[in-house]
């Protein structure tokens, strides 16, 4: 069939031209409607994405806050436990060393009684007095020992700076005497595992 045999739009009847125009408009409207639906969907999706981001941010913030609170709680618990341990230790020490101050105060009386016994008793009255002093001293020493206070061994012992206080040094008579205590000037005492008073000594060098 030749080109001339195909009718052009202008050769179509008026009714067919109107139908064709309506169909074209419908196609355009359909494309516009599809585009509008797509745009509406995109617009609807945007608020949902924003809300999701906000929720994610809130969850992250709450998670961090919870972590911080948990950390503070654990730190507080650790501080409380440390304080309780310190308190228990201090309380135990108070009970363990409750006689320490009393022992220190009594030591000066013990020293005085020992010095009094060094005085020579020439008559019966002096000897009786000395006997009384000896009994008093024995009672005090026994009471100190019963409460955990004992004399530090010093005379002839190797010098120990944790137990002895060297106030004087003298030449050693032999090698075995070097570094040892040769004289005790004042007795020292320990209270349980504490040095109540170091012994004042003379050390051979």
Brief digest:
This protein is α+β, with helices and mostly antiparallel strands and 205 residues long. The chain contains 3 helices and 6 strands, in the order αααββββββ. The strands form 2 sheets. Strands 1-4-5 form a 3-stranded antiparallel beta sheet. A 3-stranded mixed beta sheet has the order 2-6-3, with no helix packed on it.
Describe the structure.
This protein is 60% helix and 14% strand. It is α+β, with helices and mostly antiparallel strands and 205 residues long. The strands form 2 sheets. The protein has a 3-stranded antiparallel β-sheet. A 3-stranded mixed β-sheet has the order 2-6-3, with no helix packed on it. A hairpin with a 2-residue loop joins strand 4 and strand 5. Helix 2 runs antiparallel to helix 3.
Q: What are the SSEs and their pairings?
A:
Blueprint: H1 14-96, H2 100-117, H3 124-146, E1 149-151, E2 164-170, E3 181-186, E4 189-191, E5 194-197, E6 199-204
Parallel strand pairs: 2-6
Antiparallel strand pairs: 1-4, 3-6, 4-5
Helix pairs in contact: 2-3
